[in-house]
Amino acid sequence: MWQSKAGDINQAEWRKIVDQLGELRLTNLGHGALDTSLPRRAVLVTTGRLTGNAPDLFRDYNDRARRRDEPLLELWDKDTLLGDLSGNRDAVLRGSSDGHLIAALGSIEERRTTMRSLETFSQRWMTWDESRLTGLGVVEAAILCDRLEHADRLDLACHLGLCLIRGARSAVAGETSPAVEAATRLFEVYGRRLWAECDNRLLGRRALTGFSGVSGWVTYPARCTRLAELLGLLALRMRSSGDPEWVAVADWLADFVAAQPGAARPIGDEYAVALVPTALTLALRGNGAVERYLTDVTVWLCDAYEKHCFGLAHVDADATEVIDQLLGPPFEHVEISKRRDSRVAAVVLDLCAALGLTTLYEDVRNDLEAVRLAPSVLRLAPGPSMWSRTGTDNRVDPNVPYSESCEPGAAAAPHHVDPVGEDLCESGDAWDLLAVSSALRDRHFYRALPAVAGSQAVNLRGTEEPSGD
């Protein structure tokens, strides 16, 4: 027999239902077909959790029942329900006919899942109505995250949480909703589990290279930049929700970036957005950490575009293209055209502008010009396209005309005055724009940078676009 409640149960809510729970355990009043001779199990079912003093009251309630030799009360809260559903996927799949979830689960078991495949799977959530997304969508994501954790891919579990945030924001046209809140909590759960595995062992010189083998030339910087990105997102989220532990995460991240050069070596434009949460977290920490980090990124980037190199792979490149672009120059059989445009370059310049690093901005711009590198960005259109990887109203600016200097209150580039994301920044939800960027990998929202960092940057609406050189 059960009593069901929606949402969290605090001390006040517990006191409201305690009499009902007593009747559930002890009385025989109910359905006429109730067989009172059968063993009784009384269950409190809630879609939330016991909060505040409610867990203590629950334990005390069962202690008193035990002393009286009465039936105990079981609790099936949100975590219990998700765990049971994870072990019984048919309970969720019943009524679902597209089979995409089955394919995604199979991909995880075969260890073929990637950031891109998860984003592709999550595109269906963009078209669901809010009630379906809050129900089936959240449960689907929770099941996949559970499987990813068991496959030792907490990073991809975090990524799927970010994809769910994108889907929720798209489904409700950017408005805050229970689906957005649930998606954010899902990312936080797995982000904190990832953080729990970070200790001083990862700060050693060979911590992430010792087990990489010959693939370490690629996997080492990829692991470093991705871990830094996810921890940066977690720290910024914790800070926005008032959790003081964000300082510990930020401090460890600063130590990690200082100890692991790979954190400043994005292996392609797909990792350009990884720089954003890392840099913003370091900027909030202070002590010049962000300046050193962005300088290291610039050195790596310019080296990749020197005369004898091919540059870094484009944002849609597959793994083979990324490796050929990065490691191919010494080998004659690798035939690749040299790239001149770079999303990484635009992200670095935008971070310098948003954080008010005027001297560094000028130095970076001069260094990029010296290797004839063209910063590129995806200009986003307000509306559905801003949430979509295939948005037809978005357009690429392949050579952004950045101004020679970035002055306070002036736009350093045309996309700095684009209105996309302005409403979320004004409502205090700028972090969600960072989450969407990390999910999609091909864009960043300039207005979110100073908003998340708490910069005193002047609102650029209405500022004339710079004309370039």
- Give the overall average pLDDT: 87
Oligomerization state? single chain
**Strands, total number:** 7
The profile of the biggest β sheet is:
3 strands, parallel
Query: Helix and strand string, N-terminal first?
Result: EHEHEHHHHHHHHHHHHEHHEEEHHH
The figure for the number of domains is 3
Dominant shape: elongated
Question: How does the helix and strand content classify structurally?
Answer: mainly alpha
For the biggest β-sheet, the strand order reads 1-2-3
Distance between the termini: 75 Å
Radius of gyration: 25 Å
- Can you give the helix content as a percent range? 40-55%
**Which stretches of 5+ consecutive residues score pLDDT under 50?**
455-469
Strand content: under 5%
Please report the number of helical segments.
Answer: 19
Structure report:
With 469 residues, the chain is mainly alpha-helical. It folds into three domains: 2-76, no CATH class; 82-197, no CATH class; 216-469, no CATH class. The chain has 19 helices and seven strands. It has helices at 11-26, 54-67, 78-86, 89-93, 100-109, 115-122, 130-150, 154-171, 178-196, 216-240, 246-259, 275-285, 289-304, 319-327, 343-354, 358-370, 422-426, 430-440, 448-453; strands at 2-5, 42-46, 73-76, 341-342, 374-375, 377-379, 395-397. The strands form three sheets. The protein has a three-stranded parallel β-sheet with strand order 1-2-3. It has a two-stranded parallel ribbon with strand order 4-5. The protein has a two-stranded antiparallel sheet with strand order 6-7. Helix 2 links the parallel strand 2 (42-46) and strand 3 (73-76). Helix 12 packs antiparallel against helix 13. The N and C termini lie far apart (75 Å). Mean pLDDT is 87; it is low at 455-469.
